[in-house]
Write a structure and sequence with these properties.
Blueprint: H1 6-17, E1 22-23, H2 26-32, E2 46-48, H3 53-66, E3 70-73, E4 90-93, E5 100-104, E6 109-113, H4 118-127, E7 130-131, H5 144-149, H6 157-160, E8 167-174, E9 179-182, H7 196-199, E10 207-215, E11 217-218, E12 223-230, H8 233-246, E13 249-256, H9 257-265, E14 279-286, H10 290-305, E15 311-314, H11 318-329, H12 331-335, E16 341-346, H13 352-366, E17 371-377, E18 382-388, H14 395-415, H15 440-453
Parallel strand pairs: 2-4, 3-4
Antiparallel strand pairs: 1-2, 5-6, 6-10, 7-11, 8-9, 8-10, 12-14, 12-15, 13-14, 13-17, 16-18, 17-18
Helix pairs in contact: 1-3, 8-10, 13-14
GO molecular function: (R)-2-hydroxyglutarate dehydrogenase activity; FAD binding; metal ion binding
Family: Belongs to the FAD-binding oxidoreductase/transferase type 4 family.
Catalytic activity: (R)-2-hydroxyglutarate + A = 2-oxoglutarate + AH2
Length: 467
């Protein structure tokens, strides 16, 4: 632990970033000391707002000298407590490192500070006639540094992949205080270990990302959305296989009827059609010409004939497409009032149906009073299991009971060789369950890597893995 008094700590931090860039007021400590999880109460000692890589480096060197613990803070939209400061840590907020620069039209790359908001990059790309495809519900507040540190996925992974697929180069400050410029934005760089990939998904435990060069691509044309009502979950996989056999999809999502009913009940968006269905599939594709629309309708009609689809609707405008997307994208915000216990799990796509059925059977059998909400990125095998807290049950008791659920769920994940965290990261909430996805040997190597980059354990200690 640091031997600095609080007053001396603030003085030294202020000397690095300026007195106006260090906060210790109660509101700031509460706001910047947590993410979207509600399990761990925040208790940071100070919030610091650097503006340059050099300032971040000086803070890290100070942390090494004084045995400080540092926690990175971006948009604080994480769901695994990876950005929670619950033990007196100094929080490093990247809000002021939000510049976009060095756009290269030939390479289709752009340099971004760690604090650039996802939507900010998306808008910039659109202004250049290009496209940044990594997208999710928190795009309006999540920051690139956090996205990269958790290798964020989202709704278009089936076509465009994860965040790591769009990172051309990184500037990082390691736990030792070294500044590394990784990969130099090259497409081909076959010169040994690609250390860039260690920091992508590393949750700030090896070092802090301060700048990233991101790749852009061509903008899709006339994105069209199709929502289908499906009688049973297994039929969704038949629909996916059939559409993928003839079309390139940009998204393939699913959600349960229970999930949709909660969104529709808010009154902001209507149900897609009157025909009741147990599950819904949302498909998105580029309709560059009338042939694409005709092909989609032919496949839809075939799926209806096979009994895989009960009804469907296709967007006729950008506004209608946006409203259909809201049926899926508004689920997380809508169910938040029930204090959901979330699990973000994945298996290879072909194993999804038996995997989901086995989990649902266990949860409904053991906890019949819990309401289960399913949705997710079915096209890449990522399921979001949400268990809603009954109104008459205390939050503490609910989370205790759900901890038992997680053990059963993760035993099934292990059985199917899946992941306990598909895209939300590990942080604090998934750390106890990492062994269900990673072998003992892998965990030992992860600890060894941590010690190389951060020997004094100052960078986001306690997250992802314990030394």
């Amino acid at each position: 632990m640091t031997t600095l008094t609080q007053e001396a700590l603030i003085e030294q931090l202020s000397a690095i970033v300026g007195t106006d860039k260090v906060r210790t007021d109660a509101d700031s400590l509460e706001t910047f000391g947590k993410d979207w999880t509600k399990i761990y109460p925040p208790k940071p000692s100070a919030i610091v707002f650097p503006k340059t890589t050099e300032q971040v480096q000086k803070i890290v060197l100070l942390a090494n000298e004084q045995s400080l613990s540092l926690v990175p803070s971006g948009g604080r939209t994480g769901l695994s407590a990876g950005a929670v400061a619950a033990n007196g840590e100094v929080v490093i907020s990247f809000d002021y490192m939000n510049q976009i620069s060095e756009f290269n039209a030939i390479d289709r790359t752009v340099k971004c500070g760690a604090g650039v908001v996802t939507e900010q990059l998306q808008v910039f790309a659109e202004e250049q006639g290009l496209f940044y495809p990594v997208d999710f519900a928190s795009a309006g507040s999540s920051q690139l540094g956090g996205n990269i540190s958790t290798n964020a996925g989202g709704i278009k992974v089936i076509r465009y992949g994860m965040t790591r697929d769009w990172v051309a180069g990184l500037t990082v400050v390691t736990g030792k205080g070294d500044v590394l410029n990784l990969n130099k934005d090259l497409v081909k760089n076959n010169t040994g270990y690609d250390m860039r990939q260690l920091f992508i998904g590393g949750e700030g435990t090896l070092g802090f990302i301060t700048e990233a060069t991101m790749r852009l691509t061509r903008a899709p044309k006339n994105l069209t959305v199709l929502v289908l009502g499906v009688p049973e979950f297994d039929a969704i996989m038949s629909v996916l296989n059939t559409f993928q056999g003839r079309m390139d999809l940009t998204a393939f999502e699913f959600f349960s009827d229970k999930a949709m009913r909660k969104v529709v009940a808010r009154g902001d968006v209507p149900a897609p059609f009157e025909t009741p269905a147990e599950y819904y599939a949302l498909l998105e594709f580029e309709a560059e010409n009338e042939d694409h629309i005709n092909t989609a309708m032919e496949i839809f009609e075939y799926c209806v004939e096979q009994g895989w689809v009960l009804d469907g609707v296709m967007s006729q405008s950008e506004t209608q497409a946006a409203n259909l997307w809201r049926l899926r994208e508004d689920i997380s915000e809508t169910i938040s009032e029930w204090t959901p216990y979330k699990n973000d799990i994945s298996v290879v796509v072909s194993k999804v149906p038996p995997f989901l059925h086995e989990i649902e059977e266990v949860v409904t059998r053991e906890y019949p009073d819990f309401e289960i909400i399913w949705f997710g990125h079915i096209g890449d095998g990522n399921l979001h299991l949400n268990i809603l807290k009954p109104d008459d049950l205390a939050k503490e008791v609910f989370f205790q009971r759900c901890a038992k659920v997680s053990t059963w769920v993760f035993e099934i994940v292990e059985k199917y060789a899946g992941s306990v965290s598909a895209e939300h990261g590990v942080g604090l909430t998934k750390k106890p369950y990492l062994e269900y996805t990673r072998s003992k040997e892998e965990l030992d190597y992860m600890r060894a890597v941590k010690l190389v980059f951060d020997p004094k354990n100052v960078m986001n200690p306690g997250k992802l893995i314990d030394l």
